[in-house]
Amino acid sequence: MDSLPLTLSVLIGIALFGIKSGLGCGLTSLKKEEIVMISTAYLVLSMVFSILSDMIPISATRSLLSMGLFLHTLLAIMLVIGGLYTAREFCKGRDVSRRSFLLLSVPCPVCMAATFFACSILIHMTDTTPLQVGFAVGITFILTITTTVLLAKKVNSLTRKGPYLLGNVMLFLGMFYILAALLIPAYIQSRGVLIETGSMDVGNVVVSFSMLSGIVLAGFLLSRFRGVC
User: Fold this and answer.
1) Is this prediction's pTM over 0.70?
2) Radius of gyration from C-alpha coordinates of the chain
3) Whole-angstrom Cα distance, residue 146 to residue 163?
4) Which of 26, 31, 110, 124 yields a CA-CA distance of 20 to 30 A from 3?
5) What is the DSSP letter of 30?
6) CA 119 → CA 61, 107, 114, 130, 214, distances in Å?
7) C-beta atoms surrounding 200 within 10 Å
8) CB-based contacts of 132, cutoff 8 Å, min separation 6
9) In this structure, are residues 49 and 116 in contact, taking their beta carbons and an 8 Å threshold?
10) For residue range 135-178, what is the model confidence (pLDDT) as tens digits?
11) In whole angstroms, what is the distance from residue 216 CA to residue 211 CA?
């Protein structure tokens, strides 16, 4: 089996989480030291997860997958609420982005679970050591975070609406996460993969998605009636 396509696919998936973190850092007035600290945290976590995943077989991580679906839904709710709050507060002249950006930039349970699975897959499917995998994943995080921060700060300097943009990014990602929570179980079942789904009920997720859609629609209508920033 050619490991290069697999490695690239996994690293691209990791890069998406790096972009998420970079957007949070870049659209907020963080100091360089704070951004370096967050990037370093991802590198350290990648190294730790690589070492741990080498000790744990893939078959033993099935329960983590069901927990990951629950965390997807929980994080989605927090992102939607936080995004609406951040955008509305900016329109009122208050900047709360230095608190709300944490939902995007700090390693969250969903990101940590994805990093663990990425390291586990690369270690078991390629001819690389845990330290090499951890370093590659960590460097991917650092490069994508740094690049995204530079681009986001450029946009922020042009628009002067960083917190408002941050709120909209959080809102979009929240909706994306809840959609992923809907599609992942169906995809897994269609591929014939047997996993323990725990107490995850797709019906409940549909209800949650409907509620979140209502919140987004209400926020949009309020913005239209009261005017946006």
Assistant:
1) yes
2) 19
3) 19
4) 110
5) -
6) 12, 15, 9, 8, 37
7) 19
8) none
9) yes
10) 999 999 999 999 999 999 998 888 888 899 999 889 888 888 77
11) 9
